[in-house]
Task: structure prediction
Amino acid sequence: MKHRYKLAFLVALSLLMIIAYAPRIFCAGKIITDQITSIALKDNKLGDKNIRNMTIYLPPKYDSSDKYYPVIYLLHGFGSNESFYVDSVTKDLMVFLLDGLIQSKVLKEMIIVMPDGSNKYGGSFFLNSELIGNYEDYVAIEIPNYIDKKYRTIRERDAYAIAGASMGGYGSMALAMKHPDIFSAVVALSPPLAFEIMMKEVIPEVIKENPDGMKGPNSGKQYSEYIYALSAALSPNLNNPPFFVDLPYEYPTGKLIEPIRQKWLKSDPLTMLTNDSSSLKQMKGIYFDVGNKDYLGFKNGADEFHSKLTSLGIKHEYVVFNGGHSDNGVERAISALTFLSKLLPEPGFASAVDKHDKLASSWGKIKKTTP
Result:
């Protein structure tokens, strides 16, 4: 399910609107590349590097003021990496777009951090796994700690939000549910939110893609690559060479294997919500969308997740747009950032954000990164 938001025309339109209506921008934001050495990803069994780049947007006044800023952690989709969002629209256009939205008061000034969740199977789904490494710890603990130490962030829960698209949309929702003590709001664009629903629709397609038997990851077959990457994250098996995963179904019947199904459901957002809704009840805001022509199982899964949230009385915004998985990317991204911006605090000076030292020290006592 590799995809790119190829929306240069829409970006150009957005920029023209900003030029026409926004105040003149005297200070420019910037996009930089930083690097982290991850303990959580060290010695993973795929041999993927544990030194990872991250793409970071710093707002227009970051270099010219002493203010502290809220942070959005923005997760990429399957088959891409930390540069996905920037590569989709180019660095200059992304900076100009974000700067313009800030200058026109659509967005608050904020830092946006885009980490690398890629691996040799196409994507980590931002979960901990004995095969691929501990991406949950890396994104939810290591990177926020690193960002807080190096950049001027408001180090309190209300100033942290998480968002993502596709695989990153799954990751943002799953990490918000697992770490409500860290993230206060979540956005998930085109996410897979109900694995059981998705499996029923996707597994027959995987069987069709492999009439001569399962060939492993990186086959160039859309659904097959996706199912192997999910299995590496959800049902790794180091005693099952050569790919070291347990697929959740029998081949060629497609019948679900119950013990593996149960492993998948442990990290399934719909199942997690059904078993314990307390984490999402702590969110200041929940926003997710899906296209009416999205990938198999995505729309039905999102509908079920919406219904469950509604039955539990959990306030949220759910948008069904006309289109496929990656359509209308710029408008959807702006809607998502605008939603989160309304929930995040204004940038402030150190005296106004006195919690920023307390949270950093309390994290050291509560959270430990798995070696």
Observations:
- The two ends are 31 Å apart (CA to CA).
- Residues 8-194+275-366 form a domain with the Rossmann fold fold (CATH 3.40.50.1820).
- The chain has a mean pLDDT of 90.
